[in-house]
């Protein structure tokens, strides 16, 4: 049976998001898949979109980027988003690959963006195939 996957990507940093999505899609190229991509304004919106789609998909990839600024906003957004994703995954018993980059600057984030997307997709596929 063909598995269905949802990629939810924050489009706040469009160039980084593009790399994250491309990295994730590379991992899916070798399997039969049904993939939908939904873009949201920021990483904070990712968990609610996944929550609304839990029954429709077998696995999820959360993609985005949060760059540390000069205020504690970075910490609040990262903590809330990561805890929400973890809670959703364990409650629904469905894998959510966390491909959200946390970085100190855009250069750092861009450097990690392609690989991070691949890692998130790989994590979901491993859990689907071996869990």
Defining key terms:
131 residues, 51% helix, 4-stranded parallel sheet, Rossmann fold, 4 helices, single chain, alpha/beta
In short:
This protein is of the alpha/beta class and 131 residues long. Helices cover 51% and strands 25% of the residues.
Helices and strands in order, then pairings?
Blueprint: E1 3-10, H1 14-28, E2 33-40, H2 46-52, E3 59-67, H3 73-92, E4 96-103, H4 106-130
Parallel strand pairs: 1-2, 1-3, 3-4
Percentage of residues in DSSP E strands: 25-35%
The major sheet is characterized as: 4 strands, parallel
Distance between the termini: 16 Å
Q: Briefly note the structural class of the backbone.
A: alpha/beta
Mean pLDDT: 93
The CATH H-level homologous superfamily: Lumazine/riboflavin synthase
CATH topology: Rossmann fold
Number of strands: 4
DSSP helix count? 4
The topology string of helices and strands comes to EHEHEHEH
Give me the CATH architecture, please: 3-Layer(aba) Sandwich
Radius of gyration: 14 Å
Number of domains: 1
Description:
By secondary structure, this protein is an alpha/beta fold. The protein has one domain (3-130): Lumazine/riboflavin synthase (Rossmann fold). The chain contains four helices and four strands, in the order βαβαβαβα. It has a four-stranded parallel beta sheet with strand order 2-1-3-4, with helices on both faces. Strand 3, helix 3 and strand 4 form a beta-alpha-beta unit. The longest helix has 25 residues, at 106-130. The protein is globular and about 50 Å long. The two termini are 16 Å apart. The model has no long low-confidence stretch (mean pLDDT 93).
């Amino acid at each position: 049976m063909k598995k269905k996957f949802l990629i939810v990507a924050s489009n706040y940093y469009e160039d980084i998001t593009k790399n994250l999505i491309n990295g994730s899609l590379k991992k899916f190229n070798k399997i039969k898949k049904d993939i939908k991509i939904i873009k949201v304004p920021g990483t904070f919106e990712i968990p609610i979109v996944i929550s609304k789609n839990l029954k429709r998909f077998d696995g999820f990839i959360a993609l985005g980027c949060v760059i540390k600024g000069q205020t504690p906003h970075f910490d609040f957004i990262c903590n809330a988003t990561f805890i929400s994703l973890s809670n959703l995954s364990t409650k629904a018993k469905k894998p959510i690959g966390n491909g959200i980059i946390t970085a100190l600057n855009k250069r750092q984030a861009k450097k990690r963006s392609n690989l991070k997307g691949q890692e998130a997709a790989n994590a979901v596929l491993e859990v689907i195939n071996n869990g």
